[in-house]
Design goal:
seven-stranded antiparallel sheet, two-stranded antiparallel sheet, 4 helices
Length: 290
Amino acid sequence: MRTTAALATLLLAVTVSAEKPWETRLDLAVPVPVELPAIAPFNPFATPASSGPTAIGMPLRKKFVGTFPVTVAAYVDGNGVCQRLVLLRGPWTGLGAELQAAFTTTPFTPGRSFGGPVATWMPAIVDLRGRIDGGRVLTIQVSLPDPEAPYAVDPLPTPSAEPHDLARQAVPVERLDQLPVPKRFRARINARTWRENVRFLAEVGASGKVERVVFLACPDGLRGWLLASLTGWSFHPAEGASGPVKAWGLVEATLEVVASDLAADALRAGRETLYPRADAPPAADRPPGG
């Protein structure tokens, strides 16, 4: 009797929980609109102060020795000749012509794909060695950061593909069995003097010394030199309600820079395409010399 009652209870439970023939279970994602709270613009570099820091002494480091990388895309054809060079990123402007001359006079063992020589856009880094001899500050303006306008770092300029570059037949470096190899390489950049506009945030302590820096617009090659120079700069500190206070200042300056000769005797090839290129045709249809 007990066994019969237990079995009847079990059958009843299964029958109740099972789907009816006219029922279908659907799992639907129901979007629920949620109104996000409005957050007022906030600049974390803004400091309450009655007056901002003021530059007093601005010496620029002399004889600063360093390595200044240059990133390029070189079009090396199937004969190992560099027919085109595109400068993608450099320590400063104005280096394109001398680097172009260095690459066009460099013989390469061409890249290879499926056993044959092919043309390719080869990404490469040239580490120029030399020094910045010095410079001077031509103009400078220091202001307190806007408390309601956060700053953004200026984007790096990326060259867009020119039509005649897109028309060149090239196998992507990712598909090469062997990268182009320079048989010899030598680059020389002549000494030069030029002007550069820079913009950065500097945290000036109550002692008037720079404690931290955030670059907003400054060529890569000048940052190490400028950081070394800023350790020797002096400021009147910002003034708060009770005297000198630590505060960030927005520095906008025009610098005159003097650099000595730069040189490199090697280059580093990469395996990731950096400059747009057209894919090469199949090996059977590939023209001689690529």
